[in-house]
Amino acid sequence: MKHRVALLVLCGILLAACGGSDEATPNESTTTGPQITTTTAVVESTTTGPQETTTTASVATTTTADPAWTGPVYPLTGLPAIDGIPAEPAMVVKVGNNSAKSRPQYGLMAADIVYEILIESEKTRFMAVFHSRLPEIILPIRSARSSDFDLMGNLNRPLFVYWGANDGVDEERRSAENRGIFDSRSASGRGNQYFTRVEGRPAPYNGMIEPEVILGSAPDSSNAPHAVFAYGELPASAVPALGVQWSTPNRDIAYVWDAGITQWLRYQDGFAHLDEVGAPLAVDNVLVLYISYRISNADSNSPQALTTGFGDGWLLRDGTVTGITWQRNFVADPWTLTDDGTGQPVTLDPGTAWVALAKLGQGSILGPQEVSALVD
Fold first, then answer.
1. Where residue 171 sits, what CATH number does that domain have?
2. Distance in angstroms (rounded) separating the CA atoms of residues 18 and 198
3. Sequence-separated (6 or more) residues with CB below 8 Å from residue 276
4. Is residue 247 domain-shared with residue 208, that is, in the same domain?
5. By Cβ atoms counted within 10 A, which residue in 14, 60, 93, 371 is the most buried?
6. Whole domain around residue 193: which residue ranges?
7. Measured between alpha carbons, how far is residue 211 from residues 48, 126, 176, 289, 299 in Å?
């Protein structure tokens, strides 16, 4: 496997398996957290890592597309692939967001695409998709849901990484994997040796992987992912926007435009959502896709996202918003986005994307007073 430079600096954090879980317990091992570098917005704050509290400051640097570039681009960001497109498959990782115990999440800023999906109690969970770059560690790794399997069907057989699943969901996972939709690794099945638990967090919020290591177990026949979004120019119908909000009975999510770093900053439940070094999570594109949910056949407590068909939504990029219609007829199809006024194709800004899979009526465009209440 081609070595890839990782992204986030973690200093002096000792990671060790603790054992005990409400999902599954992998083989016990002791791991020292590797070192990586981060690029994000300027911030100074105090955060608690798996074992220690540190105060850090980070400075923004942004990767942008070069209009003169005619070489290969990463399929999941549209950004120039200076060293060529990695031959490895995409890695899809389930990352917890159930409560404050899940935060800070490690590794999300390295993801090309992050899907945010409703789970039980109208809370959310992340499905993070990595390909163009890898962090040194990702945590907290959480369990699979029925929503996952169709959603990753257009990634050209990715490596699916999750902690565990109940019997019904695991049967759905097995069926999807047998159909060739993905290859999986879990703490309770194949690849359990790659999963550990860190000290300093309670289970199940402390499951960890080293993605570079686990990616080495991908089949030799694996290939790079297909593009799932198109990238290009700003839609002509885009209008300026300060931000967007997604509200459920138990979760409040917002993205606010920061002109200084030309990215959207994420807020959750009224506060800036910070990464493992205390820097705000920032993203180039925010997609709000209005979809339907039904009760999972495998778990009566769990909603299942229906991610084929069509629906309305918004694309936020470059400080603007465009009303869109999304379409995806089959699970192997990419997302097709069109302007809901003109019917013309709509493309993302080359870069990262966070996708909110919201129910109709849960989203709103933020006004100045709402933004001030968040950022002041």
1. 3.50.90.10
2. 6
3. 8, 10, 47, 49, 104, 105, 106, 107
4. no
5. 93
6. 14-63+80-215
7. 22, 16, 22, 28, 29
User: Cα separation of 202 and 18, whole Å?
Assistant: 9
How many structural domains does the chain have? Answer: 2
371 part of a folded domain: yes
Give the β-pairing of 282-283 and 285-290.
unpaired
| SS3 call for 233 | coil
CA distances to 97, 230, 258, 288, 351 from 241, in Å? 26, 22, 11, 14, 19
Given a contact cutoff of 8 angstroms between Cβ atoms, the answer to whether 224 and 156 are in contact is yes
Note whether 92 and 159 are within 8 A (CB). Answer: yes
Contact 13, 33 (CB under 8 A): yes
Q: At 328, is the secondary structure helix, strand, or coil?
A: strand
Pair 209, 139: CB distance under 8 Å: yes
Judge if 202 and 250 occupy the same domain: no
Residues 134 and 35 in one domain: yes
pLDDT of residue 65: 63
Cα separation of 329 and 352, whole Å?
Answer: 24
Task: DSSP letter for 6, please.
Answer: B
Specify the 3-state DSSP secondary structure of 253: strand
User: Are 181 and 258 members of one domain?
Assistant: no
For 258, the token pair is: 């920061």
Return the half-sphere exposure (C-beta side, CA atoms, 13 A cut-off) of residue 103: 19
Tokens describing residue 318? 């470059």
Angstrom distance (rounded) from CA 157 to CA 162: 15
pLDDT tens digits for range 93-131: 999 999 999 999 999 999 999 999 999 999 999 999 999
Quick: pLDDT tens for 232-254: 999 999 999 999 999 999 999 99
Locate 288 and state its tokens: 């709000």
If asked whether residues 329 and 370 sit together in one domain, one would say: yes
Round to whole Å and give the CA distance between 163 and 215.
16
